[in-house]
Amino acid sequence: MTEHDRNQYVLSFGAVAMSAVALLFAFLELRSSDRQLDASVWPYVDATFALNSDAGSLTLSNKGLGPALIHEFRILYEGEEIRHPMELPQFDALVGAYSVTTASAPSSVLSVGEDLVVFDIRGDDVGERMQAALRGLELEICYCSLNGACWSNASEANFRQPIAACAVQDVDIDDALDIFRDINAPAAGTPEDEG
Hints:
Blueprint: H1 3-40, E1 45-52, E2 55-62, E3 68-77, E4 80-82, E5 98-102, E6 108-110, E7 115-123, H2 126-134, E8 137-144, E9 150-152, E10 161-163, H3 173-184, H4 191-194
Antiparallel strand pairs: 1-2, 2-7, 3-4, 3-6, 3-8, 5-7, 8-9, 9-10
């Protein structure tokens, strides 16, 4: 092998090594870009209860950097799912006039900075009753980003645990309306029933 051939091999090996290094840097840059893209559409859904003497509400807020696609949202009282806030035992004997506003959270999209009032109850002693209910109340939320990354608060170790995917929660609006009608139906023996 001549010195010229040896130099050609060395130059060829150097070119292959430089190409491998360039390929590694391109891979790391692509991975970094993917992470930046994920971070730029990263939602963070937070739940807030607001109470005063005659009102109580639950609001979901997106405090992240991208839209949140809410797939599952459940309210549990002492481990049992409730479909309407007026199903809480603290509201069984609610006296006086009250109003309830509810919104369906599953299948909702929260943009950055947007709030969704899940329920708002107004009436006599609502705040005190809601405060008593909070001791046994739990929320289950599962939502995803536009890139398909999903989070859930089902883990007790962390409010927001990354998961592979959220399940789809079926929401029957007619069922929810029936519950509201049953709650607002006049009690047997009232003047409305006699007419």
